Amino acid sequence: MRFLFVALLLATTPQTPAQKAKELSGQKSWEELYLAFSSGDAKAVPAEQRATVSGALVKGCQALMKDDTVMAYSMGERAILYEESAPAIRCLASAARKTEQRAAAESALVKGVTLFPKDGSFPLELGKLLLEEQDFVGAQAAFEKVPPRAKESAEAKRLLQKARQQTLQEDAARSEATRISRRLGSSAPQPGQTRPASAMGGEEASVVSLETRPGMSIRGPKLGFESGVDARGMRVRSNSRFVISYFNNDRDFGQRADYEGHIVEILSDAYHFTRGVLGEARETPVSVVLYTGQEFATAFGPRVARVVAGKYFENAIAINNAKELTKETKATIIHEYVHATVADICGGGDGDMVRLPLWYNEGLSMFVEWKYLDVPGPDLEMVDQMRTVLADPALSLISVKQMMKVSPINTPSATMAYAISGMAVQELMRREGAHRLLTLTRDVCKRQVPFEAALKTHYGMTLEDLDSEIEKIVRQR
Ligand SMILES: [Zn+2]
């Protein structure tokens, strides 16, 4: 009887999310705690309660670190959505490292360094991670960020020395490589040779391998690039991430060193930026072909040449000779780079084009592009146009559901369709973060789960739900 009374009492006094989180973590009911907060919008919890929910999830993350790292990671990931506290970021980063998700660990640590500059543990751990990846330049930059008075400072100094020495050795190896490649005259294409730069035989193989080691990172335009000849006999400059060539082989890298330097800088930015936003970037090299305006117009048509700065096409990023590399031009290059990344995540080739809805693919690129431009989404003029459409009962916004059958570019208003695609991905990101988004992407690409089924599994949403969210957002903005 008493038992029943208590149960009734519990049922009639609804707990707040904070109370529930506290109670479950007090009981160490980690599984239930996770289930209670594993999905749904963190913003639906009142702002003043989010820190408590986050704190409870962090406790779970820490408690499970030894025995169930995957679960610990998931809890850390949720904790951060409720509050980006230092312990939450720390726990997520450790769990990511233990589950071999290096990109996720790196992006969590970068977040820690940015949000808590006085905390020495974030740059120290980031530096160690980069050392392991043999990114000595990046490691140095990280160790230098450890505040001199932090308790991590002595260890950071010692490791900084180590990273510096490694950089010097790398530089020596690189200039040696350049010397050897000059002696071999590798910049002149030899007739009949149709081997990729990374697969050259003889002494040159070792020259190239210095630069194609996985995890090697470029931070500046001059770093880590070597000359070679690709499969078509084109002169290329490559490192582990980019293989750059000119559409017209007669052009010389020396003639346009300045322009090329800028492009390399943007591409390197694109790599780091994409990795920051999505937690991953493309790890296999992507071809980048530099066109003059004229060449680009001939290849892709004059209309396209006037409006785009680049295009991801047949496994390569084609770059239109933009006169000025403005922020918008750079954003386009980032957009194309995201396509290259998604293609890679999808298993390479054209897998992404075959399996992913085109709107989703474009939406991913739009989303990262907006992040890069630091804008909240489509510009106000576009939002106004959408509102006008919504206000007219005779019209309706193009929906992602419709775009399952028609690609955004082939809709009556392509720009609007791209914007809506971007907003759809933005909404998915807002709900569950990058890890979930990429899990869905992999399910569709690699496990061949139909997109709508994956959306249901990972977000509990249908395409109609997503469309009505977008309408809501348009009305609110
Ligand atoms: Zn695109």
TrEMBL record:
Coiled coil residues, start to end: none
Pfam families referenced in this protein's UniProt entry, alphabetically: Peptidase_MA_2
Family matches, as InterPro entries: Peptidase_MA-like_dom, TPR-like_helical_dom_sf
Ranges of compositional bias, category Polar residues: 187-196
Annotated stretches, region: Disordered: 147-206
Every Peptidase MA-like domain range: 280-473
Domain of life of the organism encoding this protein: Bacteria
Biased composition (Basic and acidic residues): 147-158
Protein name: Peptidase MA-like domain-containing protein
